[in-house]
Amino acid sequence: MTSRRSDEVLLACSSGHADPAERVALQGLVNAVRRDAPSVDVRDTPVDLMALDDAWPPVRVAVPLTLTGGTAVAAALSAASRHDPSLVVAHPIGPDWTLAELCVQRLIEAGARKDDTIVLGVSGAHDDAAITGYSRMARLVSAVWGGPVHIGSIGGKDTPLTDAVDIARAYGQRVVVSSYVLTPGRDADMLRHCGADLVTAPVLDGGLPDRRVVDLVLARFHQALGLGVAAL
Q1: What value does the mean pLDDT take over residues 4-8?
Q2: Residue-number span of the structural domain to which 34 is assigned
Q3: Which residue, of 3, 9, 31, 169, has the fewest CB within 10 Å?
Q4: Mean pLDDT computed over every residue of the chain
């Protein structure tokens, strides 16, 4: 049996305002990371409740469970690291090629065709870093899918989701929304009811987390410790 090192902690960081469905999905991801990394102390850490404590072990890496930078979680972790320079903040889990492959797998499973208009459905943001992350993810999904991928946003400064669907409808094509939200919940529900012909499941679809997502969380942890390649 592998023992757990007391000096190595992975803080799996998310918003403290997650609704019950989101929290269940996030907890499922954290539990899967624990199972795959028994030597690491993995802690489910809503950033709103994260306290600075002198009793923390010396090696602490905060991994944002978010699909882009520039989020409220990122802002909270930035503030925490200013107060505690020993806290290492990793890159968020997205954007990433692994997630692009997962999105395309979900498109295929949902019955998307090459002549469909694909819209990457995102939560939306006003922060430029978040918008840049969503744009990069659309390019990654496009490269894996082999065709154009547009962005439709639930709020924020990007093209509104309803507008993206209406524009595609004007060309007489089917519209398929590739859900680029992490968990079931409010945003996933809004994507599902946006009027598209098909809508894929969120990254965490309510079942066992995809192994690739679990691996991505651990990759971000090791990258932040300097044990892996730089995050994309």
Answers
A1: 60
A2: 8-94+207-224
A3: 3
A4: 91
